[in-house]
Amino acid sequence: MNDLTLIIPAKDESDSLPQVLDSLKNLTCKIKVSLQIDDQATIDSINDKNIEIFYQSGKGYGNSLKEAINDCKTKYFCIFNADGSFEHMDLFKMYELLKENDFVYTTRYETGAGSEDDTIITYIGNKFFSKLGNILFSLKISDILYTYLMGRTSSFKSLQIKSNDFRFCVELPIKMQISLMKYKCLPSYEKKRIAGKKKVNAFKDGFLILIEMLKLFFYFKVFQKK
Known about the structure:
By secondary structure, this protein is an alpha/beta fold.
């Protein structure tokens, strides 16, 4: 997997990120940690690791990802969380599926999948937004807010993602669908995070995500008429 870069967005992850990097050390892919330049504790925790550190110019989860992926030099990229919740063995399955697709998504809500970290609020939110994505855009993704995904770097760059926050989670698959790109979904098991808490504000971010989906829906309608 020399043509793959793992993009690891990190914010206040000094307790978990070193362990995550240790679990990935035998992989042949490149690793890029994307963080804010003032997150000194996280920076200090990985100084002895043989990885690339990318400093985002703005703030936010989406900003961290889009800037790091747009800077990516390899053919493929994969978003990989810094909290230890992602199953790294799934990378091999995703990589194989990606050979015939633009993106490969994972889901916690299909046979053979599950989660030790999901809460009732995030479960309901994911189910609601996944269903909305299916209704409005015919997206066949059952876990739309789960960003354990792998993609072709060129395909991502062509989508010109704008979101700097958690709206990134829906902007990417919706624009992918609008652009008629190919994708697959793969069952995955989310492990209990090593440390820290979810950084999503369920109600605030949920509202922003809803507005983003509606905005893209009206864009999609205009696009279809052209």
